[in-house]
């Protein structure tokens, strides 16, 4: 039961009631929990393409060409290309964790798919064992059932016995 204290103080609540959340002055932007992961996967996919390699090669070639061939006052990065090195290092420092994040997400998906495959294989194996038992029981049941040829031979034998009796002969061919 909720008890209230003096005016202006917080109310005391039960243990099964969640506490109030603290209010902050700065409101955080609403970001989907999976947004960074999706971005990482798209980024990793793009980095693994020939288009990305072409763009990076063109970027570096233009950068180096401009800073070597342009007039001295128009160059922004002299020969050791320190600024280009900094940009490429910064790009690599962000690319590596994003690629690892994408790989981790793919690994998680692969585990789920592998578990589903394992369950499907177990069900298929159980179904095959059931069908094998059913086929074995059918074979045993068919073994006990009279076949058409067996029935024909028995009927012929009975017919010949009836013919003999109708003629009045016994098994040895003597008249009764």
Q: Can you give a write-up of this model?
A:
This protein is an all-alpha fold. It has one domain (about 35-160). The chain has 4 helices and no strands. α1 crosses α3 (about 80-145). The termini are far apart. About 0% of the residues are buried.
What's the arrangement of secondary structure elements?
Layout: H1 35-47, H2 50-69, H3 82-144, H4 148-167
What are the main properties of this structure?
4 helices; mainly alpha; 0% strand; 176 residues
Terminal-residue CA separation: 110 Å
Figure out the total of helices: 4
Please report the total strand number as a whole number: 0
Q: Helix-strand pattern, N to C? A: HHHH
Categorize the overall geometry.
Answer: elongated
> Considering DSSP H and I runs of 4 or more, what fraction of the residues is helical?
55-70%
Number of domains: 1
Mean pLDDT: 84
Helix and strand composition category: mainly alpha
Which parts are unreliable, with pLDDT below 50 for 5 consecutive residues or more?
none
Strand content: under 5%
Largest sheet: none
Q: Rg to the nearest angstrom?
A: 44 Å
């Amino acid at each position: 039961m909720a008890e209230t204290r003096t005016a202006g103080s917080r109310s005391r609540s039960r243990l099964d009631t969640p506490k109030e959340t603290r209010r902050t002055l700065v409101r955080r932007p609403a970001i989907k929990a999976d947004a960074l992961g999706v971005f990482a996967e798209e980024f990793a996919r793009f980095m693994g393409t020939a288009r990305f390699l072409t763009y990076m090669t063109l970027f570096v070639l233009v950068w180096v060409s401009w800073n070597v061939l342009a007039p001295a006052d128009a160059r922004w990065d002299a020969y050791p290309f320190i600024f280009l090195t900094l940009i490429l290092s910064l790009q690599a420092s962000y690319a590596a964790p994003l690629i690892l994040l994408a790989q981790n997400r793919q690994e998680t998906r692969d585990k789920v798919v592998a578990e589903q495959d394992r369950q499907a294989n177990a069900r298929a194996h159980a179904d095959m064992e059931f069908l094998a038992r059913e086929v074995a029981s059918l074979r045993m049941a068919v073994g006990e059932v009279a076949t058409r040829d067996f029935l024909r031979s028995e009927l012929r034998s009975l017919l010949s016995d009836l013919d003999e009796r109708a003629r009045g002969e016994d098994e040895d061919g003597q008249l009764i």
